[in-house]
Structures are given as structure tokens and as C-alpha cells.
């Protein structure tokens, strides 16, 4: 569950779309208030898998900025490229993707490190939405993104999966959380969906961000999302960079 190869194999073998925990519709009311409104804003999904959560969120909020779908499984990233280009996403259609090694330098991509490998789907002038999507196959523990470059970071089950590494789970989760905090803009939100209860998760969040002088620079809160599926309680943790 914590290894790239395991996820890659899972996505190739299953060949099906999979939504971890719950879909966007289930938690829509809780999530919509976090969606940034300006067309300069950027949202990133860390460990997007084959989830449709972020696409549905962008559609529901008529998001006008840039959205980044990232995963260390290439198969998951390919899936996202397909769904963002598919006819059923007709409100959000794109011109053909532009695969590139190294990233073209223009204002839209200036927040990416030069080493990033991405595919960008640009808006088409005849479309209603102005959203632009980027697809990055990368490790969430070492993101090819500049400091303070994302307004909303979404993590749905990704820290949970990293924590399953028996030997290094805790240090890897901390590293991923540090990266999430590093890329947050001032006023930006990191939102995390998990079934881990606050006793354990709050201290993980606080300890991971202690290098940043956590209480001075961040505000950490949580709320219960209720019980779903087989009676498991889910939580939403929110880290705001002050
Ligand atoms: C539990 S699944 C959740 C997938 C998706 N967010 C959802 O809600 O269905 C965890 C995802 O995180 C990805 N992942 C795990 N560790 C990662 C890491 N260090 N860097 C990037 N992606 C990672 C896996 O490939 C997998 O797609």
C-alpha cells in the first residue's frame, strides 16, 4: 500500500476507476467553501489515483484556475488525463495535450520546477470554463513545485497510504506533510480526508510542521464527516497557512 509498484500494478490489473472512502457528492457541502475563486488560483490533488473527486469539485465550483493531478503511479496519471479530456466532461474540454520533458516557460507554468515532467491540457477558446489542468507523475514526498505555489492542496487517503510503510511510514508521512505545507500560499488550505481519529492525526500534523514554527504559521482544525460505508467515521483535517 505504500509502494509505487503496488499502486501501479493495482491500477493496471483492476482496469477500473476506484474512489477511496467516498465520492465528492457525499462531502460536497463541507468542501465547497475551500475552493478558491480567482482564475489565478491553483488546486493540487496529491495522490489523485483514479478518483473523480477533484474533477467533480472543479465542475461543481465552476473553478476557473489551474488544477494539478499528481500521483507516483503513471497509470493513475494517465487515467486522470483521460477523464479530463473525455466527452462526458463536456463542460471541461481541452485541446489536445502537450506532453513535454521539462516544462515550457510561460506564466502558467512558472510555479513548476524546471525538472518537472508534466502534461498540460490548455483551455479551448470556445469553451465556457477557463480551467487549465496539469498532470504530474511525481512523488508527493518531493514535489517538483515552488514554495507557496498552491492555494488548495487535497489529500484523500494519500498520507494514510504512506503510513502503511512498516519501516518508514511515519517519516515518509511527515515528509509529505512538510511538502504540502511548503507549497501552500499564505491563506492557502491543505485539506485531508482520512479515517484516522484526531488523537493520532492531530499530533502527526503538528509534529510534521514543527520546523515551520507550526503555531505561528499554521492553524490546524478538524471536523467529523460522519459515518459511511461499513460504519467507519471519517474526518476532514484542515491546515491553513496564516
Ligand atoms: C488510498 S489511494 C487514494 C486515491 C485517491 N486520492 C482517492 O481518493 O481515491 C492513495 C493514492 O496515493 C498515491 N500515492 C501514495 N504514496 C504516494 C507518494 N509518495 N507520492 C505520490 N503518490 C502517492 C497512490 O498511488 C494512490 O493512488
Detailed description of the structure:
The protein has 242 residues and is an alpha/beta fold. The protein has a domain of 135 residues: Rossmann fold (3-Layer(aba) Sandwich), CATH 3.40.50.150. Helix content is 31%, strand content 27%. It has 8 helices and 9 strands. Strands 3-4-5-2-1-6-7-9-8 form a 9-stranded mixed beta sheet, sandwiched between helices. Strand 1, helix 3 and strand 2 form a beta-alpha-beta unit. Helix 2 packs across helix 3 and helix 6 crosses helix 7. 36% of the residues are buried. The site of S-adenosylmethionine (SAM) has 20 residues, from helix 5.
In this structure, how is the largest beta sheet organized? 9 strands, mixed
Termini separation comes to 33 Å
- The poorly predicted ranges are 87-107
Bound molecules: S-adenosylmethionine
| Average pLDDT for all residues | 85
Q: What structural keywords apply?
A:
242 residues, alpha/beta, Rossmann fold, nine-stranded mixed beta sheet, globular, binds S-adenosylmethionine, SAM-dependent_MTases_sf
State the gist of this model:
31% of the residues lie in helices and 27% in strands. By secondary structure, it is of the alpha/beta class.
Amino acid at each position: 500500500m505504500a509502494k509505487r509498484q503496488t499502486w501501479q500494478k493495482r491500477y493496471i490489473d483492476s482496469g477500473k476507476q476506484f474512489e477511496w472512502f467516498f465520492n465528492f457528492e457525499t462531502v460536497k457541502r463541507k468542501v465547497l467553501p475551500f475552493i478558491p475563486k480567482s482564475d489565478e488560483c491553483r488546486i493540487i490533488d496529491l495522490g489523485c489515483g483514479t478518483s473523480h473527486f477533484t474533477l467533480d469539485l472543479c465542475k461543481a465550483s465552476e473553478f476557473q484556475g489551474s488544477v494539478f493531478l499528481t500521483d507516483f503511479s503513471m497509470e493513475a496519471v494517465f487515467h486522470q488525463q483521460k477523464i479530463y479530456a473525455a466527452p462526458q466532461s463536456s463542460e471541461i474540454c481541452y485541446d489536445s495535450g502537450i506532453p513535454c520533458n521539462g516544462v515550457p516557460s510561460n506564466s502558467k507554468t512558472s510555479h513548476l520546477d524546471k525538472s518537472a515532467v508534466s502534461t498540460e491540457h490548455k483551455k479551448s477558446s470556445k469553451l465556457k470554463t477557463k480551467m487549465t489542468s496539469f498532470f504530474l507523475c511525481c512523488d508527493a514526498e518531493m514535489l517538483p513545485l515552488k514554495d507557496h505555489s498552491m492555494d488548495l492542496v487535497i489529500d484523500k487517503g494519500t498520507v494514510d497510504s504512506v503510513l502503511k510503510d512498516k519501516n518508514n511510514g511515519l517519516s515518509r508521512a511527515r515528509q509529505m506533510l512538510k511538502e504540502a505545507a511548503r507549497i501552500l500560499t499564505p491563506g492557502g488550505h491543505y485539506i485531508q480526508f482520512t479515517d484516522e481519529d484526531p488523537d493520532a492525526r492531530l499530533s502527526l500534523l503538528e509534529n510534521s510542521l514543527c520546523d515551520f514554527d507550526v503555531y505561528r504559521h499554521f492553524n490546524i482544525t478538524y471536523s467529523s464527516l460522519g459515518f459511511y460505508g461499513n460504519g467507519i467515521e471519517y474526518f476532514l483535517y484542515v491546515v491553513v497557512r496564516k
